[in-house]
Design a protein that fits this description.
about 140 residues; alpha+beta; 5 helices
Length: about 140
């Protein structure tokens, strides 16, 4: 009986883990694709990864790109961009990214993404703090 209960628990825990891992992998792919679009000054490509609510605020790729260049310079241009911890909750993923900007300063970004009706993840926000600053 205990073995059967243990098997049920293991199935539940490990049976759902790949979905979470797949969600994180998909979200990281979206973030990396947007990061690469910024690197290549591809406004349309970067904009394509923004969630509908972001597109409402910034209704064109060039407006979105200007906001990122002026408001998020470490995201726009950097020396390194490495994924940290991630968290999934329902249809949302929160992903930390460790960034070293063009001047060598360390930053922490927290990206949030949401699963869209078409099954893709889109970026709903990005909070940026210098590494070591209190939230």
């Amino acid at each position: 009986m205990r073995i059967a209960a243990l098997l049920v628990i293991l199935t539940i825990v490990f049976g759902t883990a790949p979905a979470f891992a797949d969600d994180v992998t998909a979200a990281q792919g979206v973030i990396r694709a947007q990061e690469q679009a910024f690197t290549h000054d591809d406004a349309a490509g970067a904009y394509s990864h923004a969630a509908p609510a972001i597109r409402e605020i910034f209704p064109a790729p060039d407006i979105f790109m200007s906001m990122v260049q002026n408001g998020y310079p470490p995201v726009y241009r950097h020396k390194s961009f490495e994924f940290g911890e991630s968290k999934t909750e329902g249809n949302r993923v929160a992903q930390r990214v460790h960034i070293v900007d063009a001047n060598g300063e360390a930053w922490e970004a927290l990206y949030t993404l949401e699963l869209q009706p078409d099954g893709s993840y889109k970026i709903t926000g990005c909070s940026l703090l210098k590494a070591g600053q209190a939230v």
